[in-house]
Write a structure and sequence with these properties.
The radius of gyration is 21 Å and the shape is globular. It starts with 21 loop residues before the first strand and ends in a 14-residue tail after the last helix. It has an eight-stranded mixed β-sheet. Helix 1 packs parallel to helix 6. The relative contact order is 0.20. The protein is α/β, with parallel strands linked by helices. The protein has ten helices and 19 strands. The chain has two domains: 179 residues, FAD/NAD(P)-binding domain (3-Layer(bba) Sandwich); 155 residues, 2-Layer Sandwich (D-Amino Acid Oxidase, Chain A, domain 2).
Length: 403
Amino acid sequence: MLDLFRVEPMWASHELGRAYDAVIIGAGVHGLATAYYLGTLGIRRVAVLERAYLGWGNSGRNTAIIRSNYRTAEGIPFYDESVKLYEDLSATLGFNVMFSQQGHLTLAHTDSALNGLRVRAGANRALGVSSEIIGPAEIKRLVPAIDVGSRPRFPIMAALYHRPGGIIRHDAVVWGYAREVSRMGSEIHPHTEVTAIQTGGGAVTGVETNRGRIATPVVVNATSGWCTTVSRMAGVPLPIVSEPLQACVSEPIEPFVSKVIVSANLHVYVNQSARGEIVMGAEIDPYQTYHMGSTLPTLEEIARHTLELFPGLAHVRVLRQWTGICDMTPDYSPIIGDVPQLRGYYLDVGWGTYGFKAGPAAGKNLAASIATGRTPERIRPFRYTRFEEGRLVGEKAAAAVSS
């Protein structure tokens, strides 16, 4: 007889072992994706450690916008690989991650913003990514509720239309990866905080946690917000500052907007979830902190700029507001790969506002680097040593909420 009330855990619980082939710090999309792709390469004696619950960090504190319409020759193919992995992720994991490729519009309200979008459109097309400049009439056709008139303080001049872009259910991505990681035989340990990284002879030897010591030759720092704190445990400084990024959602309403809308000048983005909530976000707050409390001035800014685009939302109520911590590098690009001065220590950090959309590609390429000892060409430009080499990957122009 079918037991309708039986609940199967999505991932197994384990006693913390004394030794693993690899330890991954951070059980968000990046840490879990790395563990999953390590498993596909035959490395399954892996422990993923999380000091709170799965997805507690930025994987649960974002708006899960997926896109690849970046600006640099290094960034565009990388994020495009991630989009393609997301497109197949439900089938790959056997779990519906609810990826809605509804299209992504980056608005321009000034001549300089429009010139920037033209540069991005050209770079995208040259590298095989769908992007085109469209005018107000086409924008209005795609998003009837948006105000494209001349009355707003910043009238809409044009937009960069990126058809593959969209939104995804961030919790589902975390759960799907976690389920498969557990099925492969790797272990996930929530409420396990790393307190020290042990080294010797120029290599990683293990980690200390609040539950005991683990011996391992490989440690992956896949944390957000606190990546510099974790890296200092290994004696590896990071050129990263941490700044808060706030967002909010409204009460559910009838279908209102069917595209992801981002304003390059207003530094606001808007989309509608499958449940009918209007999801809104602002630019990063202009100060450095680990505090994840939300603030009224930022909420007012989000509401003001959203209403400039969608005046019809004036009477819709906001239900909740939250904050994530963004790790910002000097060139607004991540740091992925090994650290030459400390064998066995790997980084997957510094994602700024791009982290969730990059999870699959980062995990797959980092896993290949760990398994083979060779850095894939896809992530070589994002190496730790690029700052001292003067080989920055300037991606700030593609960060509409991070300037």
